[in-house]
Amino acid sequence: MRLPDSVTGSFLVVLGVAAAYGGYILPPVPGQPVGPNVFPLVIGCGLALCGLAIAFGIGHSFEEEEELVPFEDGQAAAPPPQGKLYGLRALLPPALLLFYVFAADRLGFIITAAIIVYITSTALGAKWKLALPLAALSPFAIHLIFGKLLRVPLPAGLLPTPW
Amino acid sequence: MLKTLIDAFALISTWEVIISIFAASVYGLVIGSLPGLSATMATALLVPVTFYLSPIAAIATIVAASSMAIFSGDIPGALLRIPGTPASAAYADEAYAMTRKGQAELALGAGVWFSAVGGIAGVLSLMILAPPLAEIALSFSTFEYFWLALLGLMCATLVARSSPVKAIAGMFIGLLVACIGIENPGGIPRFTFGLTDLFGGIEPIPALVGVFAVAQVMRAMLAPEPPPLPRRKFGSILAGQWRLTKLYHWQMTRGNIVGIIIGVLPGAGADMAAWVSYAMSKRFSKEPEKFGTGHVEGLVEAGASNNASIASGWVPSLLFGIPGDTIAAIAIGVLYMKGLNPGPTLFTEKASSMYAIYLMFIIANIMMIPLGIAMIRVAAYILLAPRAAIMPVIMLCCAVGSFAIGNNMFGVVTVAAFGVIGYVMETNGYPVAAMVLGIVMGTMVEQSFVTSLIKSDGSILPFFERPVAAILAAMAIGALLWPVMVWVWRKVKRPQAAAATSR
User: Fold this and answer.
1) Rounded distance, CA B446 to CA B153, Å?
2) Alpha carbon of residue B411 to chain centroid
3) Would you kindly state where each structural domain of chain B is located, as residue ranges?
4) Which one of B169, B225, B395, B461 has the fewest CB atoms closer than 10 angstroms to its CB?
């Protein structure tokens, strides 16, 4: 996911121009010199300028310091396997959260949560001996804390909890 | 004064508060000690729980969990050379070198003892600084608030350990996120793209949970599992700490002061305080050659510093609603939720609540000593828990917690989206703390900016006419120009250096 600065910078230019334009077309408040359109205009212009600067590599010299974080060399001992699809694993957590949004009302909290736990755990390298009991127990524990003690209305769905 | 103090005692001596402090302390210690789970993340995941507590108990959990997590990050740093929280990264090498020399007790003891001392120094700064600043702040108009907010945002970009241009870009992204919704000077739906869910704007708390928790789980997907902790017997942990306090009292005080200053600066938190203090300790030490070989001096100073910054980070948060660090940004969200809206009047109208906050900080830092020692002794067992068992539970907490804040599924979508944004920004060197500050302060910046412009009839001049506003303006513009000056200076210097070392 490490993209070149020219790509992220250009993206920011586009985002900034879009924000400035979006602010510009907002209707002004009658009889007032400044309305809701001023702030997005200012921010959009600023963002576009920053994007330009980043795309041209201005300020890049400040970034060298980042390499010094000792956190890195503890991990550098075992380089992760580099495959084509390996980087996409990072998208698993947000994808599972979206799955929760769509499935929780139909399947209910317990079943959806169990699926999420099982997949996350397996993706992180757990054997089924760990992932299965975890998927079976942790949804109930979370439901007990949030659903029972804190009274968050979690969807019951197909499998209502015993309490 | 005495009556307020008694009221404050009455506020915190309920079972709810006592149990909250204790439970949050244990929670903070455990999360902080697990590598990859930061203190900010611990606090962000607590927010949905605080929603269902009384105001004082809610703040108590935040105070206790954040203080404990910052100390607890030292434990895996010393034993495994993997900092539990970014705030311990500065001296993890040093602490680990001490462990290899057989001084693990001394390293961890210094962690717990000087953390507690630093925390209490931070509270004292909060108690001393906040009331007089509140007096001054009462006379602030929107012009001053605008410049103050801008100064806060600029500070956050200055101290980021990255390119200042990228930090400013991150700040603009945050401000842009804050533009979403109908809460703007015209009351017009802005950047909502016709989605009713976006009318209310992006809630800061789900955004924070996404940026700090989901992005962390995403990173864990690609990083290898940290090694297990070797089990070891510990001797007395506090032995020798009093001797160290006397020997390094000057370093400790300097660490406290640096931590307090960095905590007060918006956007700069415990990790920055630890880096600066460790570097300072090495720079001014009588024996700098010992640094890196297992020398306790840097640990004393940096440990005293990162905990001091936690409490002092509350000063600008309580006074102006400008977060001193990312943890304080979360705390501000909780304060608003609980009707303790930040502002100078908080110190006059809700004085007993303020005293209760001070007391809770002191109690949390005193409790840190026994609980911290217990944690050090059981750390080997807790760190046995595999990552594959912890991360899924954190995912569930993210989903349920973000749903609980507004009881709607859109919160979960926000968390997922900000997880991706935070992950992409972090991997590309854009500091997420700057964006978080932008999101939290966006509405305030816009309101003070637009109200000031309306008052001045569109003219820029009144922004500089009031004396305090002019000073703040000069500081904010100076902060904006500072990276440019450094850049120009380096450009001028580099050809000379290149000429000198030409090969």
Assistant:
1) 13
2) 23
3) 2-224+239-492
4) B461
Best B395, B424, B448, B452 member to test A by mutation, with max A CBs in 10 Å, is B395
Q: Contacts by B378-383 with C-beta closer than 8 Å and gap 24+?
A: B379/B33, B379/B75, B379/B76, B379/B79, B379/B229, B380/B79, B380/B229, B380/B230, B380/B231, B380/B232, B382/B30, B382/B33, B382/B34, B383/B33, B383/B34, B383/B76, B383/B79, B383/B80, B383/B228, B383/B229
Cβ atoms of residues B117 and B312 within 8 Å: no
Chain B residues touching A99 at Cβ < 8 A:
none
Distance CA B39, CA B30 (A): 10
Distance CA B169, CA B430 (A): 8
- As for the ipTM of the complex, it is 0.86
Helix A38-55 with A5-24: angle, nearest 10 deg: 160
Q: What is the pLDDT of residues B425-481, one digit of tens each?
A: 988 888 888 888 888 888 888 888 888 888 888 788 888 888 888 988 998 888 888
pLDDT in tens, B360-415: 999 999 999 999 999 988 887 777 778 888 889 889 988 988 888 778 889 899 99
